[in-house]
Amino acid sequence: xxxxxxxxxxxxxxxxxxxxxxxxxxxxxxxxxxxxxxxxxxxxxxxxxxxxxxxxxxxxxxxxxxxxxxxxxxxxxxxxxxxxxxxxxxxxxxxxxxxxxxxxxxxxxxxxxxxxxxxxxxxxxxxxxxxxxxxxxxxxxxxxxxxxxxxxxxxxxxxxxxxxxxxxxxxxxxxxxxxxxxxxxxxxxxxxxxxxxxxxxxxxxxxxxxxxxxxxxxxxxxxxxxxxxxxxxxxxxxxxxxxxxxxxxxxx
Length: 252
Hints:
The protein folds into three domains: 2-52; 72-171, Alpha Horseshoe (Serine Threonine Protein Phosphatase 5, Tetratricopeptide repeat), CATH 1.25.40.10; 191-252, no CATH class. It has 15 helices and no strands. The protein has helices at residues 2-23, 28-35, 37-49, 54-70, 74-85, 89-101, 105-115, 124-136, 140-153, 159-172, 176-190, 193-206, 209-223, 228-233, 235-251. α1 (2-23) crosses α3 (37-49) and α5 (74-85) runs antiparallel to α6 (89-101).
């Protein structure tokens, strides 16, 4: 039994060492892990691996979602107070993000665009936030004015988010051929649930039954494997998808 136990601890040390190399952690962790395989592995797992794991991120998202459900305006009030006390671009950006999170897209768009009037006009986070807010309040042409230069100047910045917002904006300005190409490229390149869901929502909206049926089957297969927590975290996308599906069925 002691040999088995030591083998397990050594296996944990190997797992942590691989994580060190793959994620670019400081190499002194390797010395610690193999000099002290038991204590070193446990310390690394708690201090480095767990805080960056998907489990931890999902837990934090769940806690954040619960806090928003209890008091959805809390962050808006805090951000508003911070901005009134110190009216910096950073605090205005925080306020804009909080407004967008509670569904006040018009106010969020105004706040983001106010940020762009100063020295942070080319900040990619502000441009992306402004585009998101514009899409949510159906200002698709304005969203394109934020997104097109953002992609051109910083093609590696949040490529999936930018692609899906571009596709939705193109669809909102009746540029359907370009929207289809953008959705299809996002699905092919990223293959995420969100990319497929956004493509399916658009396909339902234009009456493309072949594409919507294919995507819906793929999405159902993915969602069937979800835990309750994952389903809860993806609830906004699921709601929009179901609404698009029901509307398409009524108008068919």
